[in-house]
Amino acid sequence: MIEALDHIIIAVKDVVAAEKAYEALLGRTASWEGGHPDYGTRNVLFRLDNTYLELLAPDGDSDFANLLRKKIDEGGEGPMGLAFGTKNADQTVEVLEAAGLHPQTPTPGTGVDRRSGATRQWRNVMLPGHRVGGLFMFAIEHESPPDTLPLVAPHDTGGGAVHAVDHVVIQTQDPEAAKSLYGEEGLGLRLALDQTVEKWGGRMLFFRVGGLTVEVVGKPTSGEVHDKPTHSFWGIAYKVDDIDAAHERLEASGVEVSEVRVGRKEGTKVATVKSDTHGVPTLLIGPA
User: Fold this and answer.
1) What is the pLDDT of residue 226?
2) For 162-287, CATH number?
3) Dist. CA 270–CA 264, nearest whole Å
4) Which residue spans of the chain are classified as CATH 3.10.180.10?
5) Which spans in the chain are helix H?
6) Which class does domain 4-148 fall in?
7) Does the model's pTM come out above 0.85?
């Protein structure tokens, strides 16, 4: 029932400052500026080819806003959660319940763009943290047309703008439990690679969904995923068509970025973004 990584949530203190930083990072303006009055939050959304980013900040005194504020105060800004896309929330509940993940009943949600007044509606299926390794994770069924959240054209057409997410990185203390959670026994993502890296004694699992990869890395430890938090959302790798143009664009914007180097995957070049990511370890990937 899971068809995509619908969106990626990043916790930030100041959504205005974060929007400005991510406009420079991605090379495009935001697709949406809104909020969730019932939850006491504000958000900015950047739609990409295969998913969208949600910059989420506390903006009220609700329980959720206070939890978000506490998370940022104690752990800083950074990766917060993953929302997986489905076309049928009710059937997804049945499938995830059968997998032992105990999803909640679908909850309706509404958002309004502060600029255009456009409205989007959806249904969320929340997953208990103790069932998903301590992560903030849910499934979402959109009830509004896709173009309600527009894909904004990049600032330039030279290939240096980010156009998609290549992969997200999850760190785990229990790779076998992660395999059960993300694979056929749990969320139903396709396991594309399972390998042990002898150099550092760890394990890497690659799950494919909706044109991107959920990469899980970790070293085996004792303990079960359902008994204690064992997973954490760590970082994001973005796709660009021209890594050298992206490097030049970021440096011109005052963003600190590493030198371009050969990527781990054959036929690629990469660069690490070292500033203005609001706590998200960030990599750019382009063709060699």
Assistant:
1) 43
2) 3.10.180.10
3) 9
4) 4-148, 162-287
5) 15-26, 63-75, 89-98, 175-182, 243-252
6) alpha beta
7) yes
